[in-house]
Amino acid sequence: MPIIKGFSKLSRAEKISHLTASLPVDNDLAATLAEFRHPARQALFDDFSENTLTNYYMPFGVAPNFLIDEKWYVVPMVIEESSVVAAASRAASFWAQNGGFKTTIHNTLKVGHIWLEWAGPPDQLLLLQDQLGKHLTAAVRHLTASMEQREGGIRQIEVIPQKEMTGIYQLQVTFSTADSMGANFINSCLEGMKEPLLDFFAQKKLSPPNIIMAILSNHTPDCLVTCSVDCPAEQLAPYAAGLPIESFVHRFKTAVDIAIHNTHRAVTHNKGIYNGIDAVVLATGNDFRAVEAAGHAYAARDGQYRSLSSCTLSDNGHFSFSLTVPLALGTVGGLTRLHPMAAKAMEILQQPSAEELMSIAAAAGLANNFSAVASLVTTGIQKGHMKLHLSNILNSLGATEQQKAAAQDYFKDQTVSQKAVREFLEKAQ
Ligand code: MEV
Question: Among the record's GO biological process terms, what is one (predicted)?
Fold first, then answer.
């Protein structure tokens, strides 16, 4: 296919005609795209991105009964994987009856960098670090004033020479961004510091630096929350699937320890955590790519990728399970208020602060992780997963409402698979 020039300048109808003419697509493309456009609010969605043709639907559901730091929440979740909301809901009501989720916010700091190349001696810059910090902070006060009113702002500016790249410096600016995720604020401040940085070098009669780039870092190990649950081991009977409790908790802890030590398992284990976290992050209009990137970097902070959660069993038979994860989230700014469903999610969550949202997302992550590991060490996940997946299979095979009801009944005690469902429908005809 030749390069398409000026595609973004075409009208939506022209874009669709172009695609229909140049790609092997069914001729219902235009109708399907039209069907998913919003009758009243499409202009808003069109403006979120470039070349928007329609909307891509995902289920917006809720997991009720989350008791987090003594407060009740119904947690909105946007996710396509059928078992995630069910698993979160079940774990939430189980833990609500066993003390609930307890969280600690360790810090909410974020950093950004101006990367520069400079030929002078590193010591000279390090000596000027404090003066430079004051100069740059004053230079962007017009950008930080309203954040300062919300108790955010610039916290520190450091010059860090790069050990492995002679002549390359990281000017690290630490920010507190109150209830916003703060990406735009941080990037505006950093870009606003570029000219004043050059001025500072000129005032000090230093050779001019070559500014390479200015950008926030999504590595947020200082924007960290721990969420934990604990109970006497015997309380875990509803999750033990008939196993003796000692055997269940031993298997559970061993599974978590395997994820701490083995990277193959750790990645899948952490994916189960992000099933819950991402669903909340998406529902609240936050940036799930940033959250995932930060979490995976944190999981590898000692040089090996490991589990983000850990489990302890005390000698007196007490079970504890906890998750520590960086979560740079906002409850104001970005899409959090602009997307009508994100705004509704905030309402359902009773207008949380950014710190509260960190606790809620971490609790959803721990709830899903708990459910997944408990299933893996007992029945396996496929039984429950495929039961929930049954309606997807029935829809994909074009089953009628009557066939669906009959299949739901038949598969109550049968193993679900694509083949088994197809055969059931063929026989039922
Ligand atoms: C599936 O989406 C998530 C799990 O694979 C997580 C895990 O293995 O712990 C079940």
Answer: coenzyme A metabolic process
